[in-house]
């Protein structure tokens, strides 16, 4: 990838990850990049609507929501998905996500989280063996496709509790297929637990809805959150 494109994407990611408007100088420090280069990239991204300039600094731009809608349309993601996530977030307070398996890749494609952010984020997930949504999707795959995916991505430890044994993971995936629920506790991120429900949509797409919360709240909220996930995802099948 050309360096200028790589830097522009790094800049866009840095603005997206900031809690509020961020200045050009702060971006230059974060990216270890010359201020003149940062200003040039900011100008190009602002002109295209991917960023917006405010008195306090730069924010994501007005064009991004339309790009996200186009992304969902192209992947044929049910427009009801985001409403389901919003209802789950309001009812439980958990961070909630919608994930898919397509063409050999698992990715989180939508989410509703706390304003302060989440331990998980939208994007490609190379560590599906450690996440609840990943386990829900892996459990639903045919054996050859599942083994091919794990061979390609590996089973790197995200935390000391991450399963890195194919045999132990396969045993857990059999349990997921029996119960229709995938669970992980501090396997993907220390201090966090997650529950996921696989959803085979009407058009045959393999998807999952998941909810993440602090592990200290998990025992108390596991049962009502599981019930809410099953109830809300019924509308997507």
TrEMBL record:
Keywords in alphabetical order: DNA-binding, Transcription, Transcription regulation
GO MF term (any one): DNA-binding transcription factor activity
PROSITE patterns named among the record's database cross-references: HTH_ICLR, ICLR_ED
Superkingdom per UniProt: Bacteria
Keyword DNA-binding: yes
SMART domains listed in its UniProt record: HTH_ICLR (SM00346)
Cited InterPro entries: GAF-like_dom_sf, HTH_MetabolicPath_Reg, Tscrpt_reg_IclR_C, Tscrpt_reg_IclR_N, WH-like_DNA-bd_sf, WH_DNA-bd_sf
Gene Ontology BP term (one): negative regulation of DNA-templated transcription
Domain IclR-ED: 63-237
Domain HTH iclR-type span(s) in chain numbering: 2-62
Entry protein name: IclR family transcriptional regulator
Species of origin: Streptomyces kasugaensis
